[in-house]
């Protein structure tokens, strides 16, 4: 593990939010999936906030869901919140909307503004580990910091019932 400089858009988002002391860490083994990230960091998979991009089916609007790493997104719950059905965005759409490749999408600092929802379970965590722009880099925020920088104050139950 080593400390690295975040991508420019992510660094700019940190600076705009006054979070200049956030450390971005790179893990050579990779952090592409929530399980990979949890193993590299040495935390529980539920401490990982995975940034997943979906596409609204009628409007083609991208929707970013910051999800608890242990759970899957319930597309029906999201549809009820946003008023239309969603499907997963493909790799080309993810890069076009965010500027990042799947496996490295941070929760903010994107190429374009995205409607964003946060899983409520994440907001109950003392800290959340999030992708930092590459499939091998992460950073840690408190739920308060994540809410501050995204402008989102309320999480939602977005998990698929198991």
From TrEMBL:
InterPro entries (UniProt xref): YbaK/aa-tRNA-synt-asso_dom_sf (IPR036754), YbaK/aa-tRNA-synth-assoc-dom (IPR007214)
Ranges of residues in domain YbaK/aminoacyl-tRNA synthetase-associated: 30-146
Gene Ontology MF terms in the entry: aminoacyl-tRNA deacylase activity
Name listed for the protein in its UniProt record: YbaK/aminoacyl-tRNA synthetase-associated domain-containing protein
Origin species: Thalassospira marina
């Amino acid at each position: 593990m080593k400390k690295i400089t975040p991508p420019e858009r992510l660094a700019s988002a940190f600076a705009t939010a006054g979070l200049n002391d956030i450390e971005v860490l790179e893990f050579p083994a990779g952090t592409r999936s929530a399980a990979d990230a949890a193993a590299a960091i040495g935390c529980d998979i539920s401490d990982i906030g995975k940034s997943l991009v979906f596409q609204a089916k009628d409007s083609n609007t991208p929707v970013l869901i910051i999800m608890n790493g242990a759970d899957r997104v319930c597309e029906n719950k999201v549809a009820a919140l946003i008023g239309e059905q969603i499907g997963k965005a493909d790799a080309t759409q993810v890069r076009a909307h965010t500027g990042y490749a799947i496996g490295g999408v941070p929760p903010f600092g994107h190429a374009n503004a995205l409607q964003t929802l946060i899983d409520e379970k994440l907001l109950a965590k003392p800290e959340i580990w999030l992708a930092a722009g590459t499939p091998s880099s992460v950073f840690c925020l408190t739920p308060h910091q994540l809410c501050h920088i995204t402008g989102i104050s309320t999480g939602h139950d977005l998990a698929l019932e198991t």
